């Protein structure tokens, strides 16, 4: 992908190489593929090809998703659990129908206390239901954040809130980022999630940072968080 971004080879050639990895079982390889496809999705979000790249994502990740399934298998290692979360999150965000339906079912059971989601499945499920959710979905996620006893769970929710798609809900997430509900050191994660969530999110996050620059700078001046904020 680096060569494609530098104009040395065609992006089409990169996508052909990616297709060759459909039977790859290694987590590190899939993580690299996922990051590269995220970069391409971002670049194509301003074009007519964005929906086509989502179809490509579903085609590439579907076989490994079907093999892994939703539940751990006997003798499975830590990397298998990481791979499952990565793949299901990728398929869910891309709108893979079966993944979306199962994520919604499991999220409903989780919220109602019928079947609590395992830690490794929470982020992919949260991302999926938010990406394709509405104001009720966001309100439910904010309620889960408020009720969470563990800071780890609060942080997990904060990182994925930016997946919400509607402009008015994106603004609600950005306002939440500066609220007392979020620790000052975690505000950047919420804003970064919005910036990385969608084309609309990037524009909204950039405007939000400019509009609230004085407050943000006063919070983080001289610290690593201000540089991280600029990066995201």
From TrEMBL:
Instruction: Provide an example Pfam family for this protein.
Output: ERAP1_C
Q: Which keywords has UniProt assigned to this entry? A: Aminopeptidase, Hydrolase, Protease
Domain ERAP1-like C-terminal residue range list: 4-231
Q: Supply the gene name.
A: Npepps
- Is Mitochondrion one of the keywords? no
Question: Can you quote a single GO CC term?
Answer: cytoplasm
Q: What is this protein called?
A: PSA aminopeptidase
Which GO terms fall under molecular function for this chain's record? metalloaminopeptidase activity; peptide binding; zinc ion binding
Instruction: Tell whether DNA repair is among the UniProt keywords.
Output: no
Q: Name the family the entry cites.
A: Belongs to the peptidase M1 family.
Q: Name one GO biological process term.
A: proteolysis
């Amino acid at each position: 992908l680096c060569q494609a971004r530098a104009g040395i080879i065609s992006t089409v050639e990169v996508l052909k190489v990616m297709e060759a990895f459909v039977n790859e079982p290694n987590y590190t390889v899939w993580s690299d593929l996922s990051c590269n496809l995220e970069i391409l999705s971002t670049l194509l979000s301003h074009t007519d090809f964005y929906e086509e790249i989502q179809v490509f994502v579903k085609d590439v990740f579907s076989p490994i998703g079907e093999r892994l399934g939703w539940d751990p298998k006997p003798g499975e290692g830590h990397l298998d659990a990481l791979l499952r979360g990565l793949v299901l999150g990728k398929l869910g965000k891309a709108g893979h129908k079966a993944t979306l339906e199962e994520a919604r079912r499991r999220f409903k059971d989780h919220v109602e206390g019928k079947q609590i989601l395992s830690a490794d499945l929470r982020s992919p499920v949260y991302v999926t239901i938010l990406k394709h959710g509405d104001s009720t979905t966001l309100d439910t996620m904010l309620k889960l954040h408020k009720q969470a006893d563990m800071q780890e769970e609060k942080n997990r929710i904060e990182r994925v809130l930016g997946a919400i798609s509607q402009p008015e809900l994106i603004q609600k997430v950005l306002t939440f980022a500066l609220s007392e509900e979020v620790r000052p050191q975690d505000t950047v994660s919420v804003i970064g999630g919005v910036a990385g969530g969608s084309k609309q999110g990037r524009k909204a996050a950039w405007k939000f940072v400019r509009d609230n620059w004085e407050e943000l700078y006063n919070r983080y001046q001289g610290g690593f968080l201000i540089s991280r904020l600029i990066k995201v």
